[in-house]
Structure formats: structure tokens, C-alpha cells
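Input (structure):
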């Protein structure tokens, strides 16, 4: 061994004895963790001082490290060869194990090669293949239906158990969430009643949950549909509305909005009837609904109804303080025929009198507050890359009566969509990047209670991880038209789905219903009584709802006991199964696109136009108020800050759009970072300056309340007319808050702190 050391010394250097240590990784399976090699330059110890002409020759300009003339015996050459081999083996093993240890400790996101190794040979299909699989995997429509499944009833629970059993059959992970919610039901003993003039007492069987209780007496005033514009027209006619009982037609806006509008003009009660021009349902059909100007359990606003005993008593600001009651068509038309007073405005349908002070009516509401146990049912198909990011697809399970169009069709499509996509994953090799959560909600008829309680229970995580929500309630109510209500972020995705989903063999949904101008023909505002609304306006999750419909009027049997299979077939020419399949494919197309693509297909620039239109209106009205009411708004107040915030969002969204176009789709970590930035947009349009208890729908562009840009515009109108309700100081505060909400959204979208675009 001494001769070997001497030979290695001659090869590397002529220095004195030294030690070179190789520190091996801890996981090397050897007896010792160090190897020591002694390097020696004492050539005389092993070889003679004089050698013959046999030597190692280096054809280089550099001076060699070993003497070129020395005696090299056969024995020394063997030692040299053995030492070189031994050193090479040790070095190779050391490098291999160090490299392996680094790989094991790497904290980077998995590459798609890793995912391929773990999940199969073809982890991600082309989009065209995915689309064809969905179309081919869709079986004939079969309906899950119970005749009585009101929220919290045995029928509702049985239907929920049937849904979760189906999910388990498809191999999905399932779970349920249980809540104890407070709702209003009609009196178990007794009744609600109305008495018009000196006529007979009427006992309507329909009711409106969350109405105030008690008795109101006042003169009837006909107010058309009870919209804000309707009450403005009455005000312009100088009609006294204080303590009047408003008689309004059902339709166009929700029951809750009608009652809230009436309360603003100091009405004492509201009677809502189905006019035969809108609701051809007979004279004696009762209407059911709710009047909570919000969603979820109004007695636990902002937090979930897991257990009422843990929370102090509190009520939602959206609960009305006036009476509200539905009456039948026969009751409503009977009252209308007897009204006196002035003729209604020419712009209103029909020829009716508005009523005068002598048209007195008594309204008594005796609804009772009860607690119900409800369950939400869930199943999940987990993603293969970003499993903690998910698309939620949901449908209401309960109904006032048979609820065939309201809930049965949507629940059946939900289950069939879960089956189809599970089959694609299990048998066809489809591997979604992100997860898909299928949800069956209860207590939807009381104001999206089940869905909202879930949002309130998991808001902090859902707002960051839920990619989008797709609503399946009321998706088939006719056959002559197709309407979509969605977040602007999803408009481009909706348009692509319309192009690629067939209505029949020769036409797509787009060519059938929106071939000229699809946005004006198909898009509509998201209604407050849709379960998609709290996802968007309360939680900041991009949402979409859609429906096949017949004409401009609503489906007349919603909220009645006539919502049956037979009546839905009558308005669809018995095409319910075919339309349900098309609706399911449309929803599935949107969901699959959101879980398939590397980058979320959301158009950040769609909000630019909406923001800009509000900014232009506000700036123009500010100048008008300063001209007409200079004492209210000083000249120093301008809309420049709002303009600059709008410009910041425009610039940042354009930059991120360019980044998306130039991104490396194979870089999983980069795609995840970009997607997370995209997902902040909707969430950051929620005003941080209002309480979810006072204003649950905090979205400044699509929400409801004094913090919205629409409310700012209305406030300026009030200032312009010097209305006593106007408050200049409050307006300035709300304007500053809305401005910074937009700027903060732009800041978040920019990503890094050094990329912020603040010009204030």
C-alpha cells in the first residue's frame, strides 16, 4: 500500500504527505463515513533515484506533475492500476449517492415527467379527445325524483342518501355537512289572512318565508312589478306611498327585492300575485318563496349554522321589517278590479287603476320560526397535479312541491355528470389537473341556505382554492332560447363552450341561439335568487348559471305545486331528456376545460370595459353635481383617482395576459403561480370596508349595497336632485373605498411587491 501511495503521489504532485477526505452521505451503506488517502512525494521510498529511458510521456506545453524518468517495475504498475481503479469506484459511488440524495430532498414542484411516471403513460389528453369522451360517455337521461322533498323533510334526506350512494358507486370520495338552520314556515295551526274593504276574509295557503309577523292595515297601491323604476314613476306622480299596502305582480325580480324596494318608500306591507299575463297557472294556485334580501340562514349571518348555541343572537340586515304575503291570481285580480284612483303609467302593461286612500285592506301574517336539520352531500374527483384547486358543480335538491324543473332535473344532471367524468378517469385514461367537487345542496328554496352555509363555513380556504362554481338549478325551463349569467372572467370560456357543444347534429348552441351577437342574445345578469350569486358576490368565486327557456317570461310553475314532469314536458314539447343532456354537456365542457388546461381560461380584460363604463358615469355625474349643487361637492373632488385605479387594472391585466401567452406550459410551478394570480381577481373585487353581516354581497361591481359602483352612481343622482337621503360626506368615503378596492385588485394581480403600479 505504501508503494501505491507513492505512485499516486507521483501522479498528482510532489508535495509532502497530506490527507484528502471524501465525506460520504449519511445514507451510504458502508462501515465508515470517511476515506483517507495519503499523498506522498517521497519518490525514493518506493523507486530508485535513477531510472532508464522508460517513462510516461505527456505531449503538452504544461510541466508534468511527475518525473518523466523513473524506474517502473511491473509490481509498481500493478499497484498504480489497482489504486486508480479503487479511486474511480469510490468517486463514482460518492457522486452517485450525493446526486441521489439531492433528488430525494428536492422541494421543487413535480415535473410532468414525474406525473407521467406516477399516473400512467398518457397523463394528459388533447382537449379534442376529452371533449369527445364526454360526449360519448353521456348516457340517456334518467331522473332522480321524489314527490315531496321540502328542505329538512324525510324526502329531502332520502334523496340526499340516494345521491351519495351514486357517488360511492362511481368510486368518488364522499362526505356530508350537517347544519341546523332557522327558517319560517306557515302557521301549523291558524292561518295568514287578508280582508279587502268590507269583503270576506281570505286565507292564502302560499307564504313568504322570513316575512315580518303581525297585522298591517292601509290603502292598496298598485306598483306594477315592484321594481325601483316602478316606485320612481309613482314618486314622480306625487303619490303618497307612506303606510300603503303595495300590490305587485310576480316576476322580473325576486320576491325579496320587491319587498326591499317597497320598504324604502315606507310601505306597510306587500302583496304579490301571479298575473295571468305572466303566469297562466289558474286562479287558485299558491306561490311560495322567501323575502330575505340575502342568502343563507339570516339568523347566523357571516358564519355557518353548525350549532346556534355557540353564537349570540343576531339577524341579517336583509330581513324585512314589513309584512309580505303571496296571494293567488284570483285574489289579485279581484282586488285590482275594485281599485279607484288614478290610471297607471302608460309604460306599464295592462289598464289598471293605482288605488286611492279608500281602498283599505288588512293583512295578517302569522308565520312561525322553526329549526331544521339539513345536509349537504359531496363527492370529489381528485386532480393529478393541483389536487387542492377545484371546480365546484352544484345543484339544489329540495323544492316547495314536486320541484321537477326547480331541482329534480338539476340533481339528475349533477349525478350523471359525476358518473360520466368518473368513467372517463377510471376507464378512458383522462387525468384532470385539478379536482372536481360535486355538491347537492339542501334548503335552496329558502334562499340558497345550504350553499351559503358551506361558503360561510370554509370561506377562507374556498376563496383561495375554488377555481369556479357551475350552477345546475333550473337548467331546463323551455326550449326556444338559451341564457347564461356568468362572471365576466368566464365569458370567453362560455363562448367557446357554446361553439363546441352541439344543440343537434348540424348546429352548435352558438349557431342556434346566438349566431348574430351572442352577448346580447345569450348573456344576462346573474340574479340574486340564483345559488351562483353568493359564490360570486359573497365569496369572490367566478360563477356561471344557465338555462334553456321559452320566451321572455319566467317558467310559470316555479315556486308552486304545479312544477311537475308533465308541465315541464308541455313547455318543452317533451324534449326534457334531450335538453337535459345538452345542458349537462355544456356544464361538463366548462368544468373539464377548467380542470384540463395548464392555465385557467379566464379573460382578465373583460372587467376593463365594465369598470370603465362605471368610471365614465361617475365622473360625468360628479361634474353635474358640482355644477348644480356646488355646496355639496367641492371643486377639489375629482374622479381622477378612480380613473387612475381603472388604468392600473387595465395595465396589469394586459401585462399578465402577455405573460400567459409567453409562458412555458411545461413548467408546472410557473403555471400554478399564474393561475393563483388569476384567481385573486374576483376575490379582490370584494370590498374589505363592509361587514358581511351588513352587506354580504361585497362585490363592488356585481354585488349589492352602498359600497358598489352602481350605488355610487345612484348616490350622485340623489345629490344632484338635493334629495334629503343624500349624504355628500358618505359619498366621498364610499368613492375613496371603491377606488382603493380597484387599485388593490390591480396590486394583487401584479404579483410581486416591486411590480405594483401605484401612481397616487
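Output (sequence):
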Amino acid at each position: 500500500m505504501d508503494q501505491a501511495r507513492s505512485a499516486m503521489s507521483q501522479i498528482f504532485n510532489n508535495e509532502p504527505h497530506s490527507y484528502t477526505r471524501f465525506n460520504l452521505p449519511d445514507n451510504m451503506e458502508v462501515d465508515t463515513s470517511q476515506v483517507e488517502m495519503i499523498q506522498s512525494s517521497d519518490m525514493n521510498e518506493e523507486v530508485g533515484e535513477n531510472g532508464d529511458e522508460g517513462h510516461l510521456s505527456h505531449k503538452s506545453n504544461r510541466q508534468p506533475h511527475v518525473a518523466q524518468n523513473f524506474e517502473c517495475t511491473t509490481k509498481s504498475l500493478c499497484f498504480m492500476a489497482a489504486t486508480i481503479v479503487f479511486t474511480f469506484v469510490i468517486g463514482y459511488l460518492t457522486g452517485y449517492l450525493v446526486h441521489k440524495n439531492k433528488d430525494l430532498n428536492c422541494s421543487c414542484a413535480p415535473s410532468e415527467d414525474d406525473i407521467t411516471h406516477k399516473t400512467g403513460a398518457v397523463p394528459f389528453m388533447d382537449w379534442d379527445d376529452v371533449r369527445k369522451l364526454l360526449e360519448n360517455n353521456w348516457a340517456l337521461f334518467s331522473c332522480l325524483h321524489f314527490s315531496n322533498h321540502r328542505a329538512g323533510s324525510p324526502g329531502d334526506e332520502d334523496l340526499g342518501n340516494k345521491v351519495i350512494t351514486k357517488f360511492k358507486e362511481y368510486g368518488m370520495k364522499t362526505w356530508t355537512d350537517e347544519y341546523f338552520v332557522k327558517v319560517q314556515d306557515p302557521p301549523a295551526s291558524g292561518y295568514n289572512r287578508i280582508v279587502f274593504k268590507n269583503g270576506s276574509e281570505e286565507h292564502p295557503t302560499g307564504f313568504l318565508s322570513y316575512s315580518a309577523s303581525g297585522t298591517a292595515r292601509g290603502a292598496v297601491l298598485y306598483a306594477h312589478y315592484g321594481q325601483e323604476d316602478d316606485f320612481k314613476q309613482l314618486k314622480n306622480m306625487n303619490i303618497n306611498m307612506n303606510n300603503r299596502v303595495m300590490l305587485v305582480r310576480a316576476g322580473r325580480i325576486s320576491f325579496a327585492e320587491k319587498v326591499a324596494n317597497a320598504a324604502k318608500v315606507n310601505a306597510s306591507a306587500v302583496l304579490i300575485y301571479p298575473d295571468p299575463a305572466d303566469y297562466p297557472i289558474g286562479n287558485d294556485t299558491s306561490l311560495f318563496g322567501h323575502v330575505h334580501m340575502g342568502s343563507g340562514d339570516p339568523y347566523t349571518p357571516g358564519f355557518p349554522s353548525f350549532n346556534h348555541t355557540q353564537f349570540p343572537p343576531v339577524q341579517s340586515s336583509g330581513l324585512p321589517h314589513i309584512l309580505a304575503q303571496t296571494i293567488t291570481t284570483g285574489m289579485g285580480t279581484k282586488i285590482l278590479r275594485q281599485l279607484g284612483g288614478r290610471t297607471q303609467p302608460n309604460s306599464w302593461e295592462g289598464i289598471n287603476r293605482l288605488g286611492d286612500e279608500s281602498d283599505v285592506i288588512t293583512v295578517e301574517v302569522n308565520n312561525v320560526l322553526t329549526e331544521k336539520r339539513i345536509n349537504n352531500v359531496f363527492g370529489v374527483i381528485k386532480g393529478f397535479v393541483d389536487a387542492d384547486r377545484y371546480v365546484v358543480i352544484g345543484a339544489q335538491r329540495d323544492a316547495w312541491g314536486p320541484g321537477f324543473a326547480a331541482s329534480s332535473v338539476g340533481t339528475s344532471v349533477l349525478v350523471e355528470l359525476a358518473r360520466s367524468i368518473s368513467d372517463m378517469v377510471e376507464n378512458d385514461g383522462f387525468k384532470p389537473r385539478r379536482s372536481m367537487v360535486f355538491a347537492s345542496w339542501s334548503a335552496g328554496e329558502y334562499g340558497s341556505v345550504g350553499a351559503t352555509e358551506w361558503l360561510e363555513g370554509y370561506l377562507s380556504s374556498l376563496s383561495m382554492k375554488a377555481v369556479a362554481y357551475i350552477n345546475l338549478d333550473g337548467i331546463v325551463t323551455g326550449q326556444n332560447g338559451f341564457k347564461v349569467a356568468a362572471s365576466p372572467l368566464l365569458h370567453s370560456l362560455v363562448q367557446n363552450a357554446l361553439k363546441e357543444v352541439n344543440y343537434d347534429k348540424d348546429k352548435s348552441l352558438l349557431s342556434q341561439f346566438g349566431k348574430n351577437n351572442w352577448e346580447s342574445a345569450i348573456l344576462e345578469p346573474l340574479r340574486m335568487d340564483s345559488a351562483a350569486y353568493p359564490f360570486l358576490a359573497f365569496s369572490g368565486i367566478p360563477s356561471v348559471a344557465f338555462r334553456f327557456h321559452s320566451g321572455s317570461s319566467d317558467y310559470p310553475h316555479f315556486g308552486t305545486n304545479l312544477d311537475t314532469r308533465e308541465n315541464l314536458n308541455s313547455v318543452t314539447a317533451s324534449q326534457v331528456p334531450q335538453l337535459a343532456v345538452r345542458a349537462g354537456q355544456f356544464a361538463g365542457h366548462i368544468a373539464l376545460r377548467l380542470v384540463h388546461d395548464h392555465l385557467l381560461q379566464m379573460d382578465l380584460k373583460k372587467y376593463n370595459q365594465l369598470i370603465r363604463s362605471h368610471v365614465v358615469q361617475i365622473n360625468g355625474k360628479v361634474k353635474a353635481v358640482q355644477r348644480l349643487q356646488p355646496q355639496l361637492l367641492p371643486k377639489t373632488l375629482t374622479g381622477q383617482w378612480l380613473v387612475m385605479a381603472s388604468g392600473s387594472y387595465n395595465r396589469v391585466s394586459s401585462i399578465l395576459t402577455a405573460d400567459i401567452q409567453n409562458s412555458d406550459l411545461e413548467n408546472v410551478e410557473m403555471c400554478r403561480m399564474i393561475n393563483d394570480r388569476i384567481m385573486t381577481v374576483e376575490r379582490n373585487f370584494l370590498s374589505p370596508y363592509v361587514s358581511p353581516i351588513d352587506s354580504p354581497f361585497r362585490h363592488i361591481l356585481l354585488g349589492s349595497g352602498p359600497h358598489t359602483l352602481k350605488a355610487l352612481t345612484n348616490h350622485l343622482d340623489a345629490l344632484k336632485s338635493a334629495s334629503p337621503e343624500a349624504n355628500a360626506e358618505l359619498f366621498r368615503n364610499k368613492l375613496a373605498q371603491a377606488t382603493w378596492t380597484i387599485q388593490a385588485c390591480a396590486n394583487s394581480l401584479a404579483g410581486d411587491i416591486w411590480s405594483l403600479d401605484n401612481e397616487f
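Notes: Residues 1-72, 98-122 have pLDDT under 50 and may be disordered. The radius of gyration is 36 Å.
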